[in-house]
Amino acid sequence: MNMVKALKRPALAGLWLRRAVPVYVVLIVSLVAVKFGLTAYLQHKYPPVVKNDRVFGVRLPFLHKVYHDRWLVEYDKWSLYAYILVAGLAGVWMLVLLKSTAERANGLVQEALEKAENARTHNELSRSMYNLKVAASYSLDESQRQDLHQKIEHLKSRLSARPAAFPPAGGVEHLADPGKTVVRQSPVPEDTLVQRYHKIEKLGQGAMGIVWLAEDRVLERRVAVKELPVHIAEDREFKERFFREAKIL
Questions:
Q1: Of the candidates 93, 114, 160, 244, which lies 20 to 30 Å from 123 by C-alpha distance?
Q2: Alpha-carbon distance 104 to 12, whole Å?
Q3: Is the pLDDT reported for residue 194 higher than 50?
């Protein structure tokens, strides 16, 4: 795939622009240097010309000394050439970065594929799907991208077929002692989250997920369902913190 055409994709364009930060810095420094450096040089080379305030040898007090700054004329001529040169060099540098950006994108694809395979072997399907999406966003091979999208859809179907992550609580088992009651969780039902909860509208979205207004088909009531991003859904520490939050609520 032509790298120039690939820049239409946000992931590759962002990668290219992030890697071009040194170009921006050099460009700004160069423009400032041209502005002040060229000004100082021309002012030194072309000192002000003072117009005599005398008429026929008689000093007239109401006439002031007039300075003609020749360096301004020279600056208007040479600064344009200097700015064009700096901008041209920056443009060439940006074009050179395209090739190295393509190589970096291929490296990111390989890293993401390795992480996806490692997550799949540990049955972390959400993390595997996230890394496949990363690989697809940076891939320059159209056939590879199509293959990755097929794998992502396959993982989505496997995730939707998984048992519900938050099954409803089971019945209450009364012990011999009437003062003690134990709530025991029932076996995981066959229905999934997708089958049980029907999303109605989005209530809010943040860095930690999306909250939906949903209809609980089992208990026939409206509930709030928090959907976690795929890249943190398998994070053990976050999952424990999320369960603590749910218990507090």
A1: 244
A2: 10
A3: yes
